[in-house]
Write a structure and sequence with these properties.
CATH architecture of the largest domain: 3-Layer(aba) Sandwich
Strand content: 15-25%
Order of helices and strands: EEEHEEHEHHHHEHEHEEHHHEEH
Shape: globular
Structural class: alpha/beta
Number of strands: 12
CATH superfamily of the largest domain: P-loop containing nucleotide triphosphate hydrolases
Distance between the termini: 40 Å
Bound molecules: adenosine-5'-diphosphate, magnesium ion
Helix content: 25-40%
CATH topology of the largest domain: Rossmann fold
Strand order of the largest sheet: 6-7-8-3-9-10-12-11
CATH class of the largest domain: Alpha Beta
Number of helices: 12
Length: about 325
């Protein structure tokens, strides 16, 4: 089976006055048709940079400096402007954190749907656009008579659902959601994600879901990739990420959130700060903050290795399966 998206050795740099910073370093992953892949990691680890690269929406000072992004086998990094125009919305679309920033405040929702359809030659008339837009509002549970309202007339949660309806307007194969609900309260967040999940079952698009909320992610994703300092350090089935993490960083992230079962447990952060990307040490990037770090970790950068039933991890000191249950390492003491 070929993947819908295959990212191979992607590198993205930012060219700043202080020099070149590599925000995404040698990242490879796939997204299968209809799959929900999560990307998690602390702020600044490169998640949004990957999302923008996948849509080729990155702008200077960002520069894709290496790798390939294959969409159905075609490298979108080779696309010309015309192919890109068709690719965006139709093949892949994106929902950002702030719905307000991608809706035009002075145009009705109806006009903004029409704009999308018209730009892609998807409707023959305004009337056809209105019919389609009404259907799309219906699928995200917004009364269709709201079509002629302006963005400010909707609540934050409704606005985000309008944006999701727009993102799905041309039936894309991949929906990228970059912290889509971060600005909303938790109940509304979950409702929106449940809706997206339902729509995904119906239309079979794949989702790249970015958030720093690991518990929300575990509930919603098939697989999760964990990023640290511009690199993927672990990729596994989402349950395994929480219950049997291989990488000490993944383990630490799991401790920073309440468990799904609601079991009361001290939530502890990971000590130390993310790396300064302009000053990368040799060896493993996480070594300085890692309770398992050895001399080897400080000297040699670990590559991603696959472990059956557990997935991929880039770590010299992979944790035992029982790490989370506390048999082998004292969870509360180390983090
Ligand atoms: N406009 C920019 N100019 C320079 N560096 C940037 C810019 N945007 C992001 N970066 C760098 O890229 C890194 C990754 O950023 P980003 O992809 O936004 O992370 P995330 O979405 O995981 O929070 C940041 O730590 C920062 O060093
Ligand atoms: Mg981001």
């Amino acid at each position: 089976m070929t993947a819908l998206i295959e990212v191979k050795n992607l590198c993205v740099d930012y060219i700043t006055l202080n020099g070149r910073v590599r925000a995404v370093n040698n990242v490879s992953f796939t997204i299968e048709e209809g799959e929900i892949l999560g990307l998690a990691g602390e702020s600044g680890c490169g998640k949004s940079t990957i999302a923008f690269a996948l849509m080729r929406l990155h702008r200077p000072p960002a520069l894709i400096s290496g790798g390939e992004i294959l969409f159905n086998g075609e490298n979108i990094l080779d696309f010309d402007e015309e192919s890109l125009r068709k690719f965006r919305w139709k093949d892949t679309s994106m929902v950002f954190q702030s719905a307000m920033s991608c809706l035009n405040p002075v145009k009705t929702i109806e006009y903004q749907f029409y704009d999308i359809f018209k730009a892609h030659g998807a409707v023959a008339s305004r009337q056809e656009s209105i019919v389609k837009a009404r259907e799309l509002l219906n699928i995200v549970d917004i009364p269709e008579e709201r079509l002629f309202d302006y963005p400010h007339q909707f609540s934050g949660g409704m606005r985000q659902r309008v944006v999701i309806a727009m993102a799905l307007a041309l039936k894309p194969k991949l929906l990228i959601m970059d912290e889509p609900t971060t600005a909303l309260d938790v109940v509304i967040q979950r409702e929106i994600l449940q809706k997206v999940y339902q729509l995904k079952q119906q239309f079979n698009f794949a989702v790249l879901f970015i958030t720093h909320d690991l518990s929300l992610m575990v509930e919603f994703c098939d697989r999760i990739g964990i990023m640290y300092s511009g690199q993927l350090v672990e990729v596994a089935e989402s349950k395994a990420i929480l219950t049997q993490p291989q990488h000490p960083y993944t383990f630490g992230l799991g401790n920073a959130f309440p468990t799904l079962t609601g079991e009361l447990k001290a939530m502890t952060g990971i000590p130390g700060m993310p790396l300064d990307l302009s000053n990368i040490p040799s060896g493993c990037r996480f070594a300085e903050r890692c309770f398992k770090a050895s001399e080897l970790c400080r000297q040699t950068e670990p590559a991603l290795h696959y472990q059956p039933e557990r997935g991929w991890a880039a770590c010299h000191q992979v944790l035992p399966v029982t790490a989370r249950t506390g048999q082998d390492i004292p969870t509360e003491d180390v983090y």
